[in-house]
């Protein structure tokens, strides 16, 4: 019996997850892929992220490395979306139950903005659904409950669903639908990026 596996990675989730685990910690995606493939090969892997424009050279180099085949890289397809900036002048106060005006403490005339990741959740759901005839198991590295409808659909189509996640920040709705959960915290040192020697 075959078990073709599709691995979808939410870069923002993974970055936050490793920071919560340990601020100095960083995943080596070659090691992580090797860990997954010790059981069964991955049919295809995607890494989705929102990036600023222009993209820093260090990030461009990272994405090139991600796409590189072994032994140099983990052979993961990258799908990149533009990071959106939106102006803010109000936020919702949960205690007051109303919107309140926010201003810069240095100068009230300064414009405030926030960067928002756009497109990644839709991209993850789209890949899970468009490839549904090509895989038997979906491995998801994301904790976002916004993906719940897509996950429920694929599991209704008899696809196996696994999570590859950190213990912090994973929707319980996703957890209770998973056939298996790979808690990265439990083997984090095994898949850690080697520290560069200090000059």
TrEMBL record:
Pfam families: NYN (PF01936)
Single GO term (MF): RNA nuclease activity
InterPro entries hit by this protein: LabA, NYN
Name of the protein in question: NYN domain-containing protein
Native organism: Solidesulfovibrio aerotolerans
Lineage: Bacteria, Pseudomonadati, Thermodesulfobacteriota, Desulfovibrionia, Desulfovibrionales
Domain NYN: 8-181
